[in-house]
Specification:
Blueprint lengths: L1 E6 L2 E4 L4 E9 L5 E8 L6 E7 L4 E3 L7 E6 L4 E6 L8 E11 L4 E6 L3 E6 L1
Parallel strand pairs: 2-11
Antiparallel strand pairs: 1-3, 3-8, 4-5, 4-9, 5-6, 7-8, 9-10, 9-11
């Protein structure tokens, strides 16, 4: 069983920065990717950024050049450095881990409880 705990959300002024952290615990396999999704009021949850254990990254077009995702494999922790925050960025941000369990021979997704990011004008 895997648990994800997020931290770092809060209120920030437009143009400011925040850093989100997510620590995974439990049975973590080497074949995995961690990332951040967000869900704004009235909208569907969408991918913000993701990173594999090997360091390959994927970003939503709306955050390219502003957000940076990174991870510490030894700690099973993923970070999202958010800069130049815009009015469209406020949302609940959810940490995600997708991994291949070599024992059960299946891929599984795990989600954190979410952390609120609010941007003031």
């Amino acid at each position: 069983q895997v648990q994800l705990v997020e931290s770092g959300g809060g209120l920030v002024q437009a143009g400011g920065s925040l850093r989100l952290s997510c620590a995974a615990s439990g049975r973590i396999f080497s074949d995995n990717a961690m990332g951040w999704y967000r869900q704004a009021p009235g909208k569907q949850r969408e991918l913000v950024a993701a990173v594999t254990r090997g360091g390959s990254t994927n970003y939503a077009d709306s955050v390219k050049g502003r957000f940076t995702i990174s991870r510490d494999n030894a700690k099973n922790t993923v970070y999202l450095q958010m800069t130049s925050l815009k009015p469209e960025d406020p949302a609940v941000y959810y940490c995600n881990l997708n991994q291949y369990n070599s024992f059960s021979i299946r891929r599984s997704d795990y989600w954190g409880q979410g952390t609120q990011v609010t941007v003031s004008s």
